[in-house]
Amino acid sequence: MLYREAGQFKATYAEDSQIFPIRQDKIGFWLLMLVFGAAVPLLANEYWLKAILIPVLIFSLAAIGLNILTGYAGQLSLGSAAFMAVGAFAAYNFILRIEGMPFLVALVLAGLTAALVGILFGLPSLRIKGFYLAVATLAAQFFIVWALVKFPWFSNNSSSGVVTAQDVTILGYTFATPEAKYVLTFLIVAFMALLAKNMVRSSTGRAWMAVRDMDVAAQVIGFRLMRTKLLAFAVSSFYCGVAGALYAYTYIGTVEPEGFNLDLSFKILFMIIIGGVGSIMGSFLGAAFIVLLPIFLDNLVPAIFGDSLGAGFVSNFQLIVFGGLIIFFLIVEPHGLARLWQIAKEKLRLWPFPH
Amino acid sequence: MQFFIEVLIGGLLSGVMYALVALGFVLIYKASGVFNFAQGAMVFFAALTFVGFKEMLAKHLGMDADSSMVFWLSFLLAFISMIVLGIATERIVLRPLVNQPHITLFMATIGLTYVIEGLAQMAWGANVRGLDLGIVDEPIAWLMDNYEIGVSKFDLFAAGVAASLVGLLALLFQYTKVGRALRAVADDHQAALSIGIPLQTIWRVVWAVAGFVALVAGMIWGARNGVQFALTFTALKALPVLILGGFTSVPGAIVGGLIIGASEKLAEVYVGPFVGGGIEGWFPYMLALAFLLVRPEGLFGEKHIDRV
Amino acid sequence: MARQIGDVIVDLQNISLRFGGVKALTDISFNVKEHEIRSIIGPNGAGKSSMLNVINGVYHPQEGQIFFKGALRPKMEPHEAAEQGIARTFQNIALFKGMTVLDNIMTGRNLKMKCNFLQHALYWGAAQKEEIAHRIKVEEVIEFLEIQDIRKTPVGRLPYGLQKRVELARALAAEPHILLLDEPMAGMNVEEKQDMCRFVLDVNDHYGTTIVLIEHDMGVVMDISDRVVVLDYGKKIGDGVPEDVKNNPEVIKAYLGTSH
């Protein structure tokens, strides 16, 4: 009853093409921003911030990155984690080797480095599609992690490539507490999500989707395949790179290349499948789902089956649940949680008078 | 020179084993258009199930774990498990996703990979097991004495098994009724259905055969490196093999396997030392990637022309 | 008629196209004049679609030359053809299935949009202004083709006839000089065909767009074409004004299926 757009008329095209054309959505969105931007850091405890909220935000960013490439531009990648690794180690080296490097500049440079590497590994996409490309992205996954381990320069000669992120300082203020790190992560992720949303709703995004849906027709209309695909690789890798840097600096603190393995790449893929392929909001939903699910299972399994089964059982059970959910979503709702949310809204719009 | 030949032969023989895994991919791809990412997990599942049954039978029947009776009984049980897995996959994953885009099916098989890995370890535990097929991994004396070239007996045996399996499958494809139906299905699902070929039965058969191939591959790999989770990564190397050989070609899988096997060993030995070693992990992928830029359809794949 | 047929704009000379061993087109020459409606007809598999694909650079013929506005055109990619003002629709609708009608038509404007992805990311100032300016143009096309009520519908949900219309809208949004239409009326009922005919004639009349049309409905072709070229088995068997083509014995033979 409260969710109605009747009476909200759009008089200009600018009003018609807003991100939230319906007033209730806009109010809801700002409330959400207020809750997560202001209330949460004031109220949440350290565990919630460190173990759940910060990783959800960071993985959301990585998922947005993959969604740009896979969901919008239709190029499946199995190497997202490797681009996160590039971002993390690039940020580390920029801050380490350049005196007085501001953190935010390092973050952008890390993203740009990842974007460059992304373009390089995106080149095969000009000739191949589908799972051929997916296999090609495995090359990025294995090669990048290997290179980061093998060349000690990347990790400043530490053993097996482990690096510890420096303090995060912006304008003399050091982000040391979980609250401070959370707020910083939140602002960066929210800003970048907005940029992503803007890209996908304008000509850039239409070019990506056109190439995804039918590349021959896209070319005939005048899109350049090479430029469009490589831009998707670059932007996607930029997002993954920044996510990787945040992963090191505001989440884990100490990272090693092996942490950015194929498993993590798959997790990010799962986030967009479950959250919604081709949806920025879905990236957030999927990341939250994938971060929360293991925590949920860790608590649920012993409660149901007792403690006798051991950790091995729980982790195998997790594998099965993860895999099963992917199959389930692909069969039942290929557009993921984002689509379910949309359906719910459409229902709500008619409620309580459906006819 | 001897050393070069030794490395080359070693590489070629291990390439045969990649080809064996790749074969499973090709079979399923040809018959159902599904790029089955879970083939690696199936190899792991099969090997673990075989070893698991062997241990269990030996314990319950009070027999020697190395007796041939236990061996063949375990083999049979593991094969039946693979058939059940194949049928379940067809029913639960493939059938509801029929006519979906290939990429959706591909992602579903990534999910399937997780399920199979979880199931395998839940049923049989996650610790590394040894597997003894009774063939020792030592150089063939005759070659060593006369030419000073070390070629492992085990590798040669594995290559022999792979070759006979390939031959068998080729015969099956070419000369049996099921094989003909299979080729028809691979060509055009709709047309095959319309002349009364039972699609679902064909898929089940193919998954069962792929399961059998996975079992053989898993036993050989397992005997070589131990039955452990890392098998899934070894099996992943079948992917670059496929890119080289083309997804639809059985001979392609063999040739691709040989090229990958030989080149990765040669690269490791001759290039590896300059960059700190360990390049085997990514070399096949990079090779495949470079190859894709030149010939996207693979060595034996068909060139695809988009009709608009 | 208000429009004046102008000079030759596309001149195809001795075009041959092969796929492996299959000959799709053999030694075909014909031209298209500015502002005319030029139809290509012929039985199924005659090479009509291949002909369009040659014109807009999807296929590159092994032999023959293409002159565009009097100059020899080098081997070009489809997007380059688009930049030259060639737009087209496809036989099997090639809309972007995951996008709305509005977004599909907006893609037609892409060559005229100058902002880069960074400006799009900020969506402020120039990018927004540009988006709205082009939206206004697109709305004109939407109004012209009478599809206002479906502008926010995902194209995948539309019936066939409307999808064809949206595809025409997308091509028109590019304000092309030459419009290649590949069976725009296939599978339509009489009413839909009449609508489509009206749109084609209006476009030609209003904007002076040169139209190359593939169509099976002979009534339509003979009614609206200025000149017709007839293909059979990849060869040209007739060329001229509708009356001449209608009475050409070779054409009649090809259509009535007399043995060769």
TrEMBL record, chain A:
It is a multi-pass membrane protein. GO terms for cellular component: plasma membrane. InterPro entries: ABC_transp_permease, LivM-like. Keywords: Cell membrane, Membrane, Transmembrane, Transmembrane helix. GO terms for molecular function: branched-chain amino acid transmembrane transporter activity. The chain crosses the membrane at residues 27-44, 50-69, 76-95, 101-123, 130-149, 230-249, 269-297, 309-332. It is found in: Cell membrane. This is Branched-chain amino acid ABC transporter permease. It comes from Zoogloea oleivorans. The lineage of its organism: Bacteria, Pseudomonadati, Pseudomonadota, Betaproteobacteria, Rhodocyclales.
Automatic annotation (TrEMBL), chain B:
Belongs to the binding-protein-dependent transport system permease family. LivHM subfamily. The lineage of its organism: Bacteria, Pseudomonadati, Pseudomonadota, Betaproteobacteria, Rhodocyclales. It comes from Zoogloea oleivorans. It is found in: Cell membrane. The keyword GTP-binding does not apply. InterPro entries: ABC_transp_permease (IPR001851), BCAA_transport_permease (IPR052157). PANTHER family: ABC TRANSPORTER PERMEASE PROTEIN, BRANCHED-CHAIN AMINO ACID TRANSPORT SYSTEM PERMEASE PROTEIN LIVH. Keywords: Amino-acid transport, Cell membrane, Membrane, Transmembrane, Transmembrane helix, Transport. GO terms for biological process: amino acid transport. It is a multi-pass membrane protein. One of its GO terms (molecular function) is transmembrane transporter activity. The chain crosses the membrane at residues 7-29, 35-57, 69-89, 101-120, 154-175, 202-223, 235-262, 274-294. This is Branched-chain amino acid ABC transporter permease. The keyword Transmembrane helix applies. One of its GO terms (cellular component) is plasma membrane. It comes from the Bacteria. Its main location: membrane.
From TrEMBL, chain C:
One of its GO terms (molecular function) is ATP hydrolysis activity. Residues 10-258 form the ABC transporter domain. PROSITE patterns: ABC_TRANSPORTER_2 (PS50893). It holds the Pfam family BCA_ABC_TP_C. It comes from the Bacteria. Keywords: ATP-binding, Cell membrane, Membrane, Nucleotide-binding, Transport. GO terms for cellular component: plasma membrane. Gene3D superfamilies: P-loop containing nucleotide triphosphate hydrolases. This is ABC transporter ATP-binding protein. It comes from Zoogloea oleivorans. The lineage of its organism: Bacteria, Pseudomonadati, Pseudomonadota, Betaproteobacteria, Rhodocyclales.
